[in-house]
Amino acid sequence: MDIKIYENEKIREKLYYKKMKSGLKVYFMPKEGYTKQYAIFATDYGSIDNVFTPIGEKETVEVPEGIAHFLEHKLFEEPEQNIFDKFSRLGANVNAYTNFTQTAYLFSSTENFYENLALLVEFVQHPYFTDENVEKEKGIIAQEINMYRDNPNWRVFFNCLGAMYNENPVKIDIAGTVESIQNINKELLYKCYNTFYSPTNMVIFIVGDLSFDEIIKVIDESEKKDYKEVEKINRVFPEEPKEVREKFIEESMMTSSPLFYIGFKDTDNELEGEKRVRKNFITNFILDMLFGSSSVFYNDMYEEGLIDSSFGAYYTGKKSYGHSLIVGESKNPKEVYNRIMLLFEKEITSILLEEDFNRIKKKSMGEFLMGLNSVEFIANTFISLYFDDFLLIDYLDILESIKYKDVVERFNNHFTKDNSVLSIINPLR
């Protein structure tokens, strides 16, 4: 077998890789002595991929918002038996998720792993869409959309994205709208499936005390054989201005106290692979240094009663978008925003201390090493990084390479008043 082995002696882990004849990539991290096994079958396809050139066609099409999420739901449908029941009988927990940039199907088990793996590969590769089951699903997903629309935490988040982005589809709810899903039919689902669920656009990652030879044998026997190979999918994203759409958005809903999201829109989103992952790490270092639970800002604001333990911050950057979010509950969200802006006006070296950087860098490295004891952490982190063209096995090396000057430089480029927005959900009066 044409198997490649990646090894990192620092973390004492190995990663096995094989590309199947179909173009499907398979990765495996052995964990000797572990009773739990975990597998993810994922595709580089998310809710923002709504304009593309379908396989076998020359013209681009625009499909309804929410179709990637709808497709994920429909793949669990079979003519006779329920997929969840099949996994349950084999002692496995199966699940799936769709986010902005990927869709994944996964299971964890402590027994019958290879039977569960065969089932995972088979059900993901055999869609069953009919006019009837598509219509039925619309009602189910409409209920889900309405449920989230009534959720203040969900609304304050998407209102923030809507304020930051003018054109980018990341501002659209992953499930779409009640109106958009009415335009989904089985023909469109097959069009999206045949394009984005091509093996060349997918990856399987497995972790546990298992045999890679047996894994490859099961996948080879379970794989569908009649695939058209897709070299590269032509995805089209709208031109996104650097400016935010609106600085402030406010709404009232059923909530006990005001909720807020403060967003900082990124403009340099063309980076790929190691450079993109590195930027993610550096920006999250900054946010932890400034707003983490051990920061001066957090403790001062907490003592004043302006924030509570729900306060936090994180950065996410993907293929066509990037933003930092500072979130929480407060009796006065506008004051929290103003205090953050005042903080950013201070001398950088007085708020971004090198000793804090060294402490947070060590903490991040420690958290990653601890995470390597969890098959869930390993698998989900692997998939997230893989579609950024980066392998988990190199994670610690990137963390180690980040220097204090990288943090200072990134701060100057990203955290400005011009690229900031404030989203608030107030309690109903």
From TrEMBL:
Q: Per the database entry, which stretches of residues form a coiled coil?
A: none
Limits of the Peptidase M16 N-terminal domain: 65-177
- Recorded protein name is Insulinase family protein
Q: What is the lineage of its organism?
A: Bacteria, Bacillati, Bacillota, Tissierellia, Tissierellales
Annotated transmembrane regions: none
Domain Peptidase M16 C-terminal per the UniProt entry, residue ranges: 183-362
InterPro entries documented for this protein: Metalloenz_LuxS/M16, MPP/UQCRC_Complex, Pept_M16_N, Peptidase_M16_C
Give the matching PANTHER family. METALLOPROTEASE, ZINC-DEPENDENT PROTEASE
Q: SUPFAM superfamilies per the record? A: LuxS/MPP-like metallohydrolase
